[in-house]
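Students often ask what a 'structure token' actually looks like in practice. Rather than answer in the abstract, let us consider Small ribosomal subunit protein uS5, a protein of 122 residues. Its sequence is given first.
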Amino acid sequence: KYIPLAFCIVIYITLTIKKDHTSNKFFLPLKFIQVTGKCGSVTVRLIPAPRGTGIVSAPVPKKLLTMAGIKDCYTSSRGSTCTMGNFAKATYLAIQKTYSYLTPDLWPVSTLTKLPFQEAAH
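Now compare that with the structural description of the same chain:
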């Protein structure tokens, strides 16, 4: 019943992975800050873990996090996690938030111009 939902989520996650992470030959696992996803009564919090820890999670978020490319992560969940649809979607929304932050290579390049009093001083 929930398997088609999980596959749709995984397909969407794999499409939204940044190209920089897959094109680099020697890339490290994806790093992120603490994020939270909520769906219905279920709240899932993803907490970064030290390298080598692995994914410490329930089976459903563990599969989604593995397919999203996250290697080391703690998870914390609240609410009625027995509803697998909400649990999977809350995990997906938390994973989606990890990709919404701009890394320094995606920052816009800005050129600074001199202020009028700086130009008058020369």
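One point worth highlighting: The CA atoms of residues 34 and 47 lie 5 Å apart. Ask yourself how you might have guessed this from the sequence alone, and why that guess would often be unreliable.
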